[in-house]
From TrEMBL:
Its main location: membrane. Keywords: Lipoprotein, Membrane, Palmitate, Signal. Residues 1-27 form the signal peptide. GO terms for cellular component: membrane. It is a lipid-anchor. Belongs to the nlpA lipoprotein family. A lipid is attached at C23 (S-diacylglycerol cysteine). It comes from the Bacteria. It is found in: Membrane. This is Lipoprotein. It comes from Xylocopilactobacillus apicola.
């Protein structure tokens, strides 16, 4: 009987030891996972390749970036407001300001990323100066990009807009010497319209998705002091504006390594915006 009692005691002692080792291992694992901070970043399109150059640098600092892909422009801001993501990176300041007004939100920019100029493409002419009377031009129809497209046409001396209008529409064209016909379309359709129009003004993301070479554009939006509203930004909830972890994400983005990656991914159609002094 004593023999069995001793055997039972040994088994119980061994099991207790295993339990303590297991608990210690578990606590160590939890501590390790707690040491890494995860930041969910909402993006759209080919930005994923740019973030591939950022994630390893942040990982060295104990920050793991998880990218969340979205398909429409409204989704990343909705997800940020609801707390499903921590940051997003896809929109310019003008779009953000208008979105905040429309949705009674207070999302804030915490760092500049890129400027993505609009460009003019054509299968029919080699220069925007070759536009003739009655030629057709397709432009994006959303308020912000439509305004940009019209301002681009003004800078190219194709039209003149009413002065003092912040978000011009085709109704604000006061001079149209070549009598060009301006056709607003959904931004995603502008590249597809190239067979039907003389020229199309196309967002860089849409152009890249359509396999258009930015070097074949016949005119590109100029970067000037007026370009400030079109700077793309990293965006957070207002309460997180000074969050130290998120500021580390900004620092990791605004580097020469990322500038080179942007050049590679966007073929020069997007340029770093953190060094511009407006």
């Amino acid at each position: 009987m004593k023999k069995y009692q001793k055997l039972l005691l040994l088994v119980l002692t061994f099991c207790a030891a295993l339990f303590l080792v297991s608990c210690g291992s578990s606590k160590k694992s939890e501590s390790s996972s707690e040491g890494t901070k995860t930041v969910k970043v909402g993006i759209i399109g080919s930005d994923e390749r740019v973030w591939d150059a950022i994630k390893p640098e942040l990982k060295k600092k104990g920050i793991e970036v998880k990218l969340v892909q979205f398909t429409t422009y409204d989704q990343p801001n909705q997800a940020l407001v609801s707390g499903d993501i921590d940051l997003n990176s896809y929109q310019h300041i003008f779009y953000l300001n208008n979105w905040n007004k429309a949705h009674h939100a207070d999302l804030v920019p915490i760092g500049n990323t890129i400027i993505a100029p609009l460009a003019v493409y054509s299968k029919k002419i080699k220069s925007i100066d070759n536009l003739k009377s009655g030629d057709t031009i397709s432009i994006p129809n959303d308020a912000t990009n439509q305004a940009r497209a019209l301002q681009l046409l003004e800078s190219a001396k194709v039209i003149t807009l009413k002065s003092g209008v912040e978000i011009p529409t085709p109704n604000d064209v006061v001079k149209n010497p070549k009598k060009v016909k301006i056709t607003p379309l959904d931004a995603s359709q502008t590249a597809r319209s190239l067979d039907d129009v003389t020229v199309a003004i196309i967002n860089n993301g849409v152009a890249l998705d359509a396999k258009l070479n930015p070097h074949t554009a016949i005119y590109t939006e100029k970067i000037t002091k007026k370009s400030k509203p079109w700077i793309n930004v990293l965006v957070a909830q207002k309460k997180d504006k000074n969050n130290k972890t998120y500021q580390e994400v900004v620092k990791a983005y605004q580097t020469e390594k990322v500038a080179q990656k942007l050049k590679e991914v966007y073929q020069g159609s997007s340029v770093p915006a953190w060094n511009y002094k407006f």
